[in-house]
Write a structure and sequence with these properties.
Among the domains are: 1-202 and 209-214 and 252-273, no CATH class; 342-464 and 529-557 and 570-611, no CATH class. It is 72% helix and 2% strand. The chain contains 32 helices and 2 strands. The protein has a two-stranded antiparallel ribbon with strand order 1-2. Helix 7 packs antiparallel against helix 8 and helix 20 runs antiparallel to helix 21. The longest helix is centred in the last third of the chain and has 49 residues, at 649-697. The protein is globular, with a radius of gyration of 32 Å.
């Protein structure tokens, strides 16, 4: 009775943060002066509200893991014979796993944000948006039908738009949120068409009923396969945009313009995973369509590989992690496309906690570097101005290192287990997919270690950036920009000077720094060293390091001598058949040698190039380069150009979409301005002159009327005489 009664209170999970968002928003709107003194109270209320949601989710999760049952509490919203729409809250393993994930990461990010955003004037507004997002995301997770999912899907997108553009006075942030909004509208429109098409075929919006009917119609041949695949791919178009899959991935790197806590919660752990959640939710519908499954798997593989190549030489710390997120989401989509449902969810969990650890770590670094290099994101997030931060920020460096190893797929950290599963499933499905996932794993290890080495190892380079000597960057003895060149080729400036010269935010600052006062400020800033963040920011990093290290063990049968299902398989029993042939720990490690080898090669190359103490590695590197320096330089510059220019995809979008739209809109605008508006304006001008003429003709004097009448009569008589004489002749 307790279990049955508790499921009726599933509405508490999304409602608590919704109430928190509403109250904090109302307080800040109607009582702005009083709200300034209640800043910390509003944050505490938001954290407590989400904690209630977490506790409720954990209770449901514990009960469900024991009973292995699925429940849902529904009530009718539209009462008509020809349409049935019920709203409510389902309680099943997928819902509860996502709920626990969202609430745990959300609480830690809120605690982190309390310190990170404490000096921001929009502190309360930030927590209002943050609570509204968590409520929307939890509402999406607890949705039993496509209409309810679509409503919360749009709310999540709205919150993302608001938080990306949180610092909307900065042009780059305003442009980034608009780019994210427009790109996601493309996917959401496709999702809406898919929902309508699925309802037209099945007559239901309820996900379980809809998937069962759709699969039956496909199996029996009652539906045209082309139409069925079109509907499935339209439904998939929503996750393509939301989860930053190729070709609608272009918004995610720019979304890093938002505050770093948003990057951790929305654009790494939760919102971008909403697309993965949705595909998993309608997996039974898509699974019956081999063509759609193939398209999904190859889109995921393309995204994984593309994201890893675009991250190779990124200089912006957060954008490097953003491309990493894009690549790992590609792994999940690929896994769903080849039918590896469990592996996709496994990687979703491990990646969410690992990346939720890395982004706050990057925020801690940026927060510390701002006091050293200034508050321009182009400089405070530029890894070429960092280095040696581990000795200044040991806790941040340690937690970031654990997250880096996890993302590289190094055992026994979390992402190793899930990524290795996906790579193994890819090889069993297709050798092409197997090669793509394995090579991508090597690239991932390379750029993640590059990020760590440039940020935390070596010496701090910000104070030496004005020097043009190669000693200012002890990254490599090569002059290839890919390997961390100090000089800007076109200007000959040092890295700090070159970035400052290209920073539109600081154009006025450059001209001012020529005077003595700013020179003193610059000298004083160079004397400042980074320091570790405060305890409130470090606490979430330490806590998130635990699942980053241990979360992978939920998906392996590591501590059982007898074969049997692992913990994750047991949790998913109502949705999938449990694995009875789980490998033991030794077998898993032996079978993972191939994937780990690719990762170790990537780490080795990265350390050889960027490691500050890798003398023998640099010697080997230089010998290889000397074999054919021209080709080596050409390859290096090509890789850097590809990465820094985002694969030229944005450039082609600008030419093919933006410029084409503007070009075609000009004749349409001219036609509207001169023809359509000309007719309307001409009618108005004619009416104006007619009215003016009538006004002067109608002065109210009888003599004027008589004159007009006589003139008209004379004209008519003359006209009649003309026609009579003409007729007689």
């Amino acid at each position: 009775m307790f279990v049955e009664l508790s499921y009726e209170y599933a509405w508490l999970v999304p409602s608590c943060p919704l109430v928190s968002s509403g109250l904090t928003g109302l307080v800040s709107f109607f009582f702005p002066k009083a709200a300034k003194g209640l800043r910390r109270s509003c944050a505490a209320f938001s954290i407590i509200s989400l904690t209630v949601s977490l506790i409720t989710s954990l209770v449901f999760f514990w009960e469900q893991s024991i009973s292995h049952s699925t429940q849902q509490y529904l009530w009718s919203r539209i009462l008509r014979d020809d349409i049935s729409l019920k709203i409510g809250f389902p309680v099943d393993p997928l819902t509860l796993i996502m709920s626990v994930l969202v609430t745990t990461v959300g609480i830690l990010v809120m605690i982190y944000s309390d310190s990170y955003m404490c000096h921001d004037q929009g502190y309360i507004r930030f927590f209002t948006y943050l609570s509204l997002f968590t409520a929307s995301m939890l509402g999406l997770v607890f949705s039993p039908n496509l209409i309810q999912i679509y409503v919360f899907w749009e709310l999540v997108g709205m919150c993302s738009y608001s938080l990306i553009g949180f610092w909307f006075t900065r042009p780059s942030a305003a442009n980034a949120c608009q780019k994210a909004f427009v790109t996601n509208r493309i996917g959401d429109f496709g999702l809406l068409l898919g929902i309508l098409g699925a309802y037209w075929i099945t007559g239901s919006f309820e996900i379980r009923e809809l998937c069962d009917r759709f699969s039956e119609l496909v199996t029996s041949g009652s539906i045209n396969p082309i139409l069925a695949n079109i509907i499935a791919l339209l439904l998939f178009l929503g996750p393509v945009a939301k989860s930053a899959q190729f070709p609608l991935h272009v918004w995610l790197p720019d979304a890093m313009e938002g505050p770093t806590p948003i990057s951790a919660l929305i654009h790494a752990a939760t919102m971008v995973a909403a697309g993965i959640f949705f595909v998993a939710r309608i997996f039974d519908l898509i699974e019956s369509l081999p063509f759609s499954m193939g398209v999904i798997s190859w889109i995921g593989a393309t995204t994984a590989f593309l994201g890893s190549t675009l991250a190779l030489t990124q200089r912006d710390l957060k954008k490097g992690l953003a491309y990493s997120t894009m690549s790992q989401l590609g792994y999940m989509v690929l896994a769903l496309g080849i039918g590896a449902y469990r592996s996709a969810l496994f990687h979703l969990i491990t990646h969410a906690y690992s990346k939720a650890s890395l982004f706050p770590g990057s925020g801690s670094v940026i927060h510390s570097m701002e006091k050293v290099v200034g508050y321009s994101p182009i400089k405070s997030q530029n890894m070429l101005l960092m280095g040696g931060l581990r000795k200044y920020m040991p806790i941040t460096g340690t937690t970031f290192f654990s997250g880096t190893l996890s993302m590289c797929g190094i055992p026994p950290l979390a992402c190793f287990w899930s990524k290795d599963e996906i790579i193994a499933e890819s090889w069993s499905n297709s050798s092409s997919l197997g090669w793509i996932t394995s090579i991508t794993a090597g690239f991932t290890a390379f750029y993640m270690f590059r990020i760590y080495l440039l940020t935390f190892e070596g010496n701090l380079r910000s104070s030496d950036a004005e020097s043009s000597s190669m000693d200012a960057f002890q990254l490599a003895e090569s002059d290839i920009p890919l390997w961390g060149e100090t000089q800007n080729e076109s200007t000959g400036l040092g890295v700090a000077e070159a970035y400052e010269a290209t920073d539109p935010v600081n154009e006025n600052l450059i001209s001012r720094e020529s005077n003595k006062a700013d020179s003193k400020i610059s000298a004083h800033r160079n004397s400042i060293k980074p320091k570790e963040s405060d305890f409130i920011m470090l606490l979430p990093l330490i806590v998130l390091a635990i699942p980053t290290s241990l979360a992978g063990f939920i998906g392996v049968n590591a501590f059982q001598k007898e074969t049997g299902p692992d913990s994750l398989s047991e949790w998913l029993i109502p949705l999938i058949m449990p694995r009875t042939d789980s490998e033991n720990l030794v077998e898993l490690l032996i079978n993972s040698i191939g994937s780990v080898s690719f990762s170790l090669v990537g780490i080795f190359i990265s350390y050889t190039i960027y490691g500050s103490n890798s003398f023998w590695g640099k010697t080997l590197f230089n010998k290889i380069k000397d074999l054919n320096k021209n080709i080596f330089n050409l390859v290096g510059r090509s890789i850097q150009s590809w990465s820094l220019n985002r694969g030229y995809i944005d450039y082609y979008y600008k030419i093919c979409l933006i410029d084409t739209t503007l070009l075609s809109s000009r004749p349409v605008s001219s036609f509207d301005q001169w023809i359509i508006d000309g007719i309307i304006n001409g009618t108005g001008v004619l009416s104006l002159f007619s009215g003016e003429g009538a006004r002067y003709g109608g002065g109210g004097r009888i003599s004027y009327y008589s004159f007009g009448l006589i003139t008209g009569v004379i004209f008519l008589i003359a006209l009649a005489i003309y026609f009579v004489i003409g007729g007689v002749a």
